[in-house]
Design goal:
Layout: E1 3-12, E2 16-26, E3 31-35, H1 42-50, E4 57-62, E5 65-66, E6 77-80, H2 92-102, H3 107-121, H4 136-148, E7 154-158, H5 166-183, E8 186-191, H6 194-200, E9 203-208, E10 211-216, H7 218-223, H8 228-233, E11 240-247, E12 250-253, E13 256-259, E14 266-273, E15 278-280, E16 285-296, E17 300-306, E18 312-318, E19 328-333, E20 339-341, E21 347-348, E22 356-357
Parallel strand pairs: 3-8, 3-9, 6-7, 7-8
Antiparallel strand pairs: 1-2, 1-4, 4-5, 9-10, 11-12, 11-14, 12-13, 13-22, 14-20, 15-19, 16-17, 16-19, 17-18, 20-21
Length: about 350
């Protein structure tokens, strides 16, 4: 089911604008991820869609029906929270069936839906257990099952994996992708974890201070960030951002000089290079940098580097590279991988870099 958000806003007492006239359309069957730092408004927006928060303006529609004036129970949405919210005294079967029993569905239909969801989620052997007898991952699957049996118009996920350990989060992400591929129900997923956003979303919505900074497919947002905030937020380790100026076709800042032929002068500019695009002994424009810290990560390593002025950069390279701390090393940059932003943070066209020298 399509969900349309039209200039929605939320203002708390004291004039705090948590969501600032946000407009967004979620396509039928799409898995859309809202991502951003704590306090950016993503959870507030989700709660307004669910009906758990009132709006101070704008409209929310599900399909062709406007719902922002309706109570949560009349919106045909199922929400999955990070704390599972299971009834501890009920079995898995009862937890999954409870909402359907309240709706007075026939017992045979309830059983059919519960058994079908349990089979999909691998919960069939656990139907007679209570939540305290389950692992964290199993409890989260029960919460998902409780949402699935309702057969809603859309699913709303509020950081559902944040209480799981790292290995289980990876496993549950894969299960969510498989589940969505099978059900093809519209889903809106809130997370502060950019890795979840990149791996789960058909599209991602990057938010900051109650506003949308960029909407796009995960790789498009990663490869072509719309502004400096998105560039610094999406990607781990974060993009290296170097402040400087562009004058006479030369970028200069923090001990780095790069030729930018044909570029207009910029009194203030920021040059961006992702850590994985700083290559040790590769091809491209050369930078001589001092190795400060080596952090082995198995098949790769993160290298903290300093420019001649002491400015810090980070490179992510193959673990086999022979580097020593406190020694200079030659790194290269592919000109096509460079990002450039103006003084207010808006993206400028990718420059052609003809030379790079510290």
């Amino acid at each position: 089911m399509r969900i349309t958000i039209d200039t929605v806003e939320k203002i708390y007492p004291g004039g705090v604008r948590a969501v600032d006239r946000v407009s967004l359309q979620v396509n039928d069957g799409e898995f859309l991820v809202l991502v951003g730092p704590s306090g950016c408004g993503k959870t507030t927006l989700l709660r307004m869609i669910a009906g758990l928060e009132e709006t101070n303006g704008g409209a929310i529609s599900i399909g062709d029906r406007r719902v922002d004036g309706l109570p949560p129970g009349d919106r045909d949405l199922a929400m999955v929270f990070q704390n599972y919210a299971l009834y501890p005294h009920m079995t898995v079967r009862k937890n999954m069936a409870f909402a359907l029993e309240l709706r007075k569905l026939p017992k045979a239909e309830i059983e059919r839906r519960v058994l079908g969801a349990a089979e999909t989620l691998g919960l069939s052997p656990l139907l007679d257990r209570r939540p305290k007898e389950l692992s964290g991952g199993q409890r989260q699957r029960v919460a998902l099952g409780r949402a699935i049996v309702r057969q809603p118009a859309a699913f709303l996920f509020d950081e559902p994996l944040s209480n799981l350990d790292a290995r289980l989060r990876v496993q549950m992400r894969a299960e969510l992708k498989r589940l969505h591929r099978r059900l093809r129900t519209t889903a809106i997923y809130v997370t502060h974890d950019q890795e979840e956003a990149m791996t789960l979303g058909d599209r991602v919505v990057v938010m900051k201070d109650g506003t949308i900074q960029q909407i796009g497919r995960p790789l498009d947002v990663y490869q072509r960030p719309a502004n400096r905030f998105v560039a610094g937020f999406v990607g781990m380790p974060p993009m290296n951002l170097i402040r400087g100026t562009v004058a006479g076709g030369i970028f200069a800042g923090e001990g780095v000089r790069l030729a930018l032929p044909g570029r207009p002068d910029q009194a203030e500019a920021v040059l961006g290079i992702r850590p994985e695009h700083l290559t040790f002994r590769g091809t491209g424009e050369r930078l001589t940098l001092r190795v400060s810290v080596l952090e082995p990560l198995g098949d790769r390593q993160d290298v903290t580097l300093t420019t001649p002025t002491g400015f810090t950069l980070v490179a992510r390279i193959d673990s086999g590279a022979e580097l020593r701390e406190s020694e200079d090393a030659a790194f290269t940059v592919d000109p096509s991988r460079i990002h450039l932003f103006d003084r207010i943070g808006a993206r400028l066209e990718t420059p052609e870099l003809l030379e790079a020298r510290p």
